[in-house]
UniProtKB/TrEMBL annotation:
Identification of the protein by name: DUF1302 family protein
One Pfam family in the UniProt entry: DUF1302
Superkingdom, taxonomy of origin: Bacteria
InterPro entries for this protein: DUF1302
């Protein structure tokens, strides 16, 4: 997987994460699943 973090003026923060499953052939139940997540934060 991979994660990126962006900060703007020490008030806004954005985290973007990506996770991919591969391998295992036909018996891998996760082989066709990818996950992307976002987290947006604001600090006063």
């Amino acid at each position: 997987g991979a994660t990126m973090n962006f900060n703007y003026q020490n008030a806004w923060s954005l985290d973007v994460s990506y996770n991919s499953f591969w391998g295992g052939g036909d018996i891998n139940t996760f082989s066709d699943r990818d996950y992307v997540s976002f987290n947006l934060k604001y600090s006063i």
